[in-house]
Amino acid sequence: LSGLDPAQPYFQGTPTEVRLDKSDADFVDVIHTDSAPTIPNLGFGIRPAIGHIDFYPNGGEEMPGCAKNPVSQIVDIDGIWEGTRDFVACNHLRSYKYYSDSIIYPDGFLGYPCASYDLFQSGSCFPCPEEGCPNMGHYADKFKDKIKKDFMKFYLNTGEAKDFPLWRYKVTVTLSGRKKVKGYVNVALYGSGGNTKQFQITKGTLKPDNTYTAYIDAEVNVGEITKVKFLWNNNWINPTLPKLGAATITVEAGQNR
Description:
The protein is an alpha/beta fold. The chain has 2 domains: about 1-165, Rossmann fold (3-Layer(aba) Sandwich), CATH 3.40.50; about 165-255, PLAT/LH2 domain (Lipoxygenase-1), CATH 2.60.60.20. The chain has 4 helices and 12 strands. It has helices at about 40, 70-75, 80-105, 115-120, and strands at about 1-5, 30, 55, 110-115, 150-155, 165-175, 180-190, 195, 200-205, 210-220, 225-235, 245-255. A 5-stranded mixed beta sheet has the order 1-2-3-5-4. Strands 7, 8, 9 and 11 form a 4-stranded antiparallel beta sheet that branches. The two termini are about 30 Å apart. One of its GO terms (biological process) is lipid catabolic process. One of its GO terms (molecular function) is lipoprotein lipase activity. Belongs to the AB hydrolase superfamily. Lipase family. Keywords: Cell projection, Cytoplasmic vesicle, Disulfide bond, Hydrolase, Lipid degradation, Lipid metabolism, Secreted.
């Protein structure tokens, strides 16, 4: 039984007979997309974990792409009716859109077990544990024999628009060069499954021999990595023409560690 942002008003905090609960089926998975308090945030979705496994994409409250300006949202790519519904309840309706995308991407929407969204964002819950991570949505039940405790919360990020799944990587760059400069470092990944856009790994003071780490959510599952593109820029013309390179770049995929 899959709960697509089950309702908060009149249901949150009520007895289990009244609302969705994990006693309702052999396996209950829940996607929370609109779990901010109803007052004053107009959250329609229940906040506590109530299933065998509960997913909180993007933290479970505000979904990317839902803060578009009202006019562009109502005149949506999928038509005015769809756009108007999104304008009224965009976060709430994201749950079924993620679910329908999950059918097409069996390897997508990996949920990382974590105590909070902030810890997930900081990389504390990366990579997946040895038993792996469940896939939010249609294929969540593949995880049902790996449930270890009463309530399990999983976090992940999604894209702003269709197609929604993102794949998480840890990218670590050690710089080489003669002297420190100010600027930023970008990295793009190339692999058997496709290429990513450029992601900023760090900005500010760049010191040779220092190591910088970032967690990136890529729009493709890169697969086996074949190449990494490294770029740096100091944003202004420097007459000393400083040179900076990458001594090493390490990429770790969350999925298979």
